[in-house]
Write a structure and sequence with these properties.
With 352 residues, the chain is of the alpha/beta class. It has 3 domains: 96 residues, MurE/MurF, N-terminal domain (Udp-n-acetylmuramoylalanyl-d-glutamate--2,6- Diaminopimelate Ligase, Chain: A, domain 1, 3-Layer(aba) Sandwich), CATH 3.40.1390.10; 205 residues, UDP N-Acetylglucosamine Acyltransferase, domain 1; 33 residues. It is built from 6 helices and 39 strands. It has an 11-stranded parallel β-sheet with strand order 8-11-14-17-20-25-28-31-34-37-39, with no helix packed on it. β22 and β23 form a beta hairpin. The termini are far apart.
């Protein structure tokens, strides 16, 4: 598809500098710009690329002051990153409109009890078990497995190879990327007298509310009893492990390789970096920000905190070290006050 700078400006509410009729048909990074492509500049580190880029159109911040001439047509907006995201979402929606598949490809298995909404798509080699309900415009891509009694809301997309176990509930406008597993057994075992482990049946399910996106290879375990719950608007990256009976609050974002242990409750609008480890049975307050590779071993009760670090050594020593470390600023002040007092009170010979 082709668009003029003027047409794009209307979509992102931009002010045009340059040729409003220049045509673009592709996206490119600003440092790899080429004729016919549109790029954006949001990070000041790449500003120099603005003056050498061959892209035909570049989205920039309204506040940007040019140091040299630019050959591209500029589209000025308050926030270039947000505007580019909006443009890409619009473009993707147009593509999906052009390629909006419906119907049942063969071979695919759909149990006779399945309830299909309007304009549903089921790809080849998908398996839809008994008692499943698919809402309007649901898309099940090739090779997906949908277990017994699963409900999937309208406009949700289940990509290739996704596995959804029995009784799980998927809301509307949910996007599950390739290979993620929803509803596998939680990690529940009871130690026996002989040192062996007896499996505890996992009888619950997973509940995913509306507008959730879950990345490739992410696993969300079913609850032992009740539900593992992913609230509305949550965004999960690839390769995340969420254990049984976890609850993640609305609007929370979690980066790749994070692991959340059983029965932990994550608040609303939290931001959790990559490779974070969170122990079980704790609470994380609303608005918490956790830096990458942090290890969270106790509840965070005060909202909107930023935390970092990992106590990755002997547990008892770690607790003692943390207790001292938390008081280091006060201890440093005390030592400095003592040193100052000693230097003042000692005679000159004593100072020597």
């Amino acid at each position: 598809m082709k668009f003029t700078a003027q047409e794009i400006a209307k979509i992102i509410h931009a002010r045009i500098e340059g040729d409003a009729q220049v045509v673009v048909h592709d996206f490119a990074k600003i440092e790899e710009g080429r004729a016919g492509a549109i790029s954006f500049l949001a990070n000041p580190k790449y500003e120099q690329c603005l003056y050498s880029s061959q892209s035909s159109v570049i989205i920039v911040n309204e506040s940007l002051s040019l140091r040299e001439e630019v050959s591209a047509t500029l589209l000025r907006v308050p926030d270039a990153y947000q505007a580019f995201a909006t443009l890409m979402q619009t473009y993707q929606a147009l593509l999906e409109g052009e390629q909006n598949k419906t119907g049942i490809e063969q071979p695919a298995f759909i149990h006779e009890s399945v309830v299909l909404g309007e304009d549903v798509y089921v790809g080849a080699f998908a398996y839809i078990s008994s008692g499943v309900t698919l809402g309007n415009k649901v898309k099940i891509h090739p090779g997906a497995f949908i277990g017994k009694g699963v409900h999937i809301g309208a406009n949700s997309i289940i990509h290739a190879g996704v596995k959804i176990y029995e009784k799980c509930v998927i809301g509307s406008k949910v996007l599950l990327h390739a290979g993620c597993v929803i509803g596998a057994d939680g990690f529940g075992f009871a130690e026996q007298e002989d040192g062996s482990y007896k499996k505890i049946p996992q009888m619950g399910n997973v509940l995913i509310e509306d507008d959730v996106e879950i990345g490739a290879g992410t696993t969300i375990d079913r609850a032992t009893l009740g539900s593992t719950i992913i609230r509305k608007g949550v965004k999960l990256d690839n390769l995340i492990q969420i254990a049984h009976n976890v609850e993640i609050g609305a609007g929370t974002v979690i980066a790749a390789q994070t692991g959340i242990s059983g029965s932990t409750k994550i608040g609303k609008h939290c931001i959790i970096g990559g490779q974070v480890g969170i122990v079980g049975h704790i609470q994380i307050a609303d608005g918490t920000k956790i830096n990458a590779q942090s290890g969270v071993a106790k509840s965070i009760t005060e909202p909107n905190q930023v935390i970092t670090g990992s106590p990755a050594f002997d547990y008892r020593s770690a607790l003692k070290s943390q207790a001292v470390f938390r008081h280091l600023p006060e201890l440093t002040q005390d030592v400095n006050r003592i040193k100052k007092k000693l230097n003042t009170e000692l005679p000159e010979s004593g100072k020597e």
